[in-house]
Specification:
- By secondary structure, the protein is an all-alpha fold.
- The chain has two domains: about 110 residues; about 120 residues, no CATH class.
- It has eight helices and no strands.
- The longest helix has about 35 residues.
- It is found in: Membrane.
Length: about 240
Amino acid sequence: SLNSLNHDMTLAEFKFIWYMEYSHRMWGRVVGLAYILPAAYFWRRGWLSRPLKGCVLALCGLVCFQGLLGWYMVKSGLEEKPDSYDIPRVSQYRLAAHLGSALVLYSASLWTGLSLLLPRHKLPETKQLLRLRQYAHGTTALIFLTALSGAFVAGLDAGLVYNSFPKMGEHWIPDDLLAFSPVLRNIFENPTTVQFDHRILGIASITAVTALYLFSRKIPLPRRTRMAVTSLLAVACIQ
């Protein structure tokens, strides 16, 4: 089925796809070594505290798990589906898991690194500060969910269904939003619903980031924290 679908592909086009996949795998292996080798060296030299050993083990385990998820994802795109005449593609569920795992790994690495490099600010625990922290955590969860919904868009080629914004074609809410049965299936398998959800989550994310920024302006915060919130707003706008 791969031959019949891509019969007009030139050797140069095939090489481009092959090298993209190959370099991604090789880069992933280099990342794995960049975690495991220094971790083994620092552990051997006794430079890691007990809590840090737990962090390092978790990060190295997550790197290995990420590679395993990548293999599991690619495998789903190579399986013959007798009832399908569509372009071979990986499972959107596995793609979302692979991306989600990568985001967790990246965030955990950054958090661990910054915790070691920068001392924590000792701030008075006011009600406003507690609310800001809770709101920041909520915004993080919303951004993570938006990114995961993007993996479903990519996995289903849902970005090709509608190319107008803010409306989807002629409608604010498309007709085929709940075309699949049962209803829950639409969220993960209906390209229209997947794109619609991604748009809603994207708008919600940028709204939450803007609100977080405006709320942070009312609180006396250290320069570093203020810079982080401003950078978050800037990146959200670029995105």
